[in-house]
């Protein structure tokens, strides 16, 4: 598989060889199959799946190409969780190099949770198999090229076959996508724009370098491929935008690197960098779907930023991004990056991933600042003279989204709860298509399930109306 990664070839041309596999949406043997269960993230998904399957009374199985490793994962599950002493979870052989095995796997379940990345390399076979067998699909990808390519190629067929293909059900991009939905529903007035600020703490890994692992090397490889495939990404993005009529917000050049007060609880300003991929790309599609399919008055723009805190960290982050973007496009350097992730990432990525303590001590805080207008009347007669014409005033609503262990703990819960929501709330979900989290789950209990199971917190921090002047957060 390493050769495939280094050649940057996707499995898009895999074909079922015209083999007809039944796609009848009858009751299937399993509610959910976790595909790629022996991978780093897949193992965490399996453990959470063990818990959730008991809560929601689900039938499930795991799948992959190494049955010995899969059995080891199940043995750990049996030893860790109560209630599995007399249960045996099925193991299904399926290999992304053989689409027939993947299709046969998909045929047996209602939903496939795909944990095999990089998705740009290995994801399309699974998507195609699910679409052809009318099976629902969820994943944890943060790769815009893969998501938008799948939407362009498979959306219509997925709609026709009543197959839901939902990407980005992890740290990227559930908090942002659902956070924007939460903000819109709680904004009393006309929402004009939203700025999203993401902060990961303990703060920036920059001061922990060198050789302090924060991510699995698969995430590193996905990042390198994202930087290396800019032309392909723009190619499919333009095709998708033309096909669906999507309009994307232009970057605010003045805020690429800027200071911002991100909370009404503190007057401190922090340094932030523009961070449009992948969350901004996902939210753009969600807004478009809301306007064109759900006929909702979503007339606002969203821009994403990453909070670094101090200027030195922000500048180092900017320099690292620009340097990696340039070097990743050079084939020989890219090969080295992929083959030796721990060395070239300065220890940030490794094949063992971060340890349990480091993951449990990591947190994500998302601040969504929504600005617009409201027709609220001034609170007293003295303010009427300075109020906007027709009592239109400026409104700023700030939403906070928080999650613990966002990279792997939150992600595991989110992707499983997404699959469960497809099963439990199917009446309130589109019948099919390649969708974003918000597009699929806008009218469901997905957000409530995230909060009920201690995956994330969505809350209003402040709601400020300004008469006759601009908000201090503008």
From TrEMBL:
InterPro entries: NAD(P)-bd_dom_sf (IPR036291), Saccharopine_DH-like_oxidrdct (IPR051276), Sacchrp_dh_NADP-bd (IPR005097)
Protein name (database record): Saccharopine dehydrogenase NADP binding domain-containing protein
Keyword Membrane part of the UniProt annotation: yes
Domain Saccharopine dehydrogenase NADP binding: 32-160
GO CC field: lipid droplet; mitochondrion; plasma membrane
Transmembrane segments: 305-327
Pfam families: Sacchrp_dh_NADP (PF03435)
GO terms for biological process, alphabetical: glycolipid biosynthetic process
Keywords: Membrane, Transmembrane, Transmembrane helix
Family indicated by similarity: Belongs to the saccharopine dehydrogenase family.
Species in which this protein is naturally found: Acyrthosiphon pisum (Pea aphid)
């Amino acid at each position: 598989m390493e050769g495939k990664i280094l050649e940057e070839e996707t499995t898009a041309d895999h074909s079922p060889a015209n083999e007809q596999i039944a796609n009848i949406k009858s009751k299937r043997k399993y509610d959910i199959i976790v595909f790629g269960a022996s991978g780093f993230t897949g193992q965490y998904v399996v453990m959470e799946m063990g818990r959730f399957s008991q809560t929601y009374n689900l039938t499930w199985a795991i799948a992959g190409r190494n049955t010995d490793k899969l059995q080891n994962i199940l043995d750990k599950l049996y030893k860790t969780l109560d209630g599995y002493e007399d249960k045996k979870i099925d193991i299904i052989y399926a290999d992304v190099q053989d689409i027939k095995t993947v299709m046969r796997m998909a045929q047996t379940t209602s939903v496939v949770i795909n944990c095999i990345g990089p998705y740009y390399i290995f994801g399309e076979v699974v998507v195609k198999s699910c679409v052809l067998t009318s099976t629902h699909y969820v994943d944890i990808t943060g790769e815009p090229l893969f998501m938008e390519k799948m939407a362009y190629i498979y959306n219509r067929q997925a709609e026709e076959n009543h197959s839901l293909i939902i990407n980005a059900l992890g740290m990227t991009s559930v908090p942002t996508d659902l956070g924007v939905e939460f903000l819109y529903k709680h904004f009393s007035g006309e929402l004009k724009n939203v700025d999203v600020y993401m902060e990961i703490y303990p703060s920036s890994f920059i001061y922990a370098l060198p050789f302090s692992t924060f991510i699995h090397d698969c995430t590193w490889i996905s990042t390198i491929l994202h930087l290396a495939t800019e032309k392909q990404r723009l190619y499919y993005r333009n095709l998708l935008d033309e096909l669906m009529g999507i309009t994307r917000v232009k970057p605010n050049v003045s805020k690429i690197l800027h200071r911002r007060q991100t909370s009404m609880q503190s007057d401190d300003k922090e340094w932030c960098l523009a961070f449009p991929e992948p969350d901004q790309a996902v939210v753009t599609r969600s807004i478009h779907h809301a306007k064109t399919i759900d006929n909702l008055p979503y007339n606002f723009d969203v821009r994403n930023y990453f909070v670094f805190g101090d200027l030195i960290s922000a500048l180092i982050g900017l320099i690292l991004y620009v340097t990696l973007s340039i070097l990743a496009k050079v084939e020989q350097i890219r090969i080295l990056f992929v083959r030796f992730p721990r060395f070239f990432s300065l220890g940030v990525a490794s094949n063992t991933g971060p340890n349990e303590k480091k993951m449990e001590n990591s947190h994500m805080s998302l601040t969504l600042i929504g600005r617009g207008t409201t027709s609220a009347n001034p609170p007293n007669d003295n303010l009427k003279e300075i109020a906007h014409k027709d009592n239109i005033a400026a409104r700023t609503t700030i939403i906070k989204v928080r999650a613990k262990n966002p990279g792997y703990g939150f992600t595991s819960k989110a992707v499983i709860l997404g699959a469960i929501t497809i099963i439990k709330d199917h009446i309130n979900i589109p019948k099919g298509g390649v969708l974003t989290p918000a597009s699929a789950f806008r009218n469901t209990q997905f957000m409530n399930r995230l909060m009920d199971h201690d995956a994330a917190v969505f809350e209003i921090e402040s709601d400020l109306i300004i008469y006759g002047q601009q908000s201090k957060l503008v």
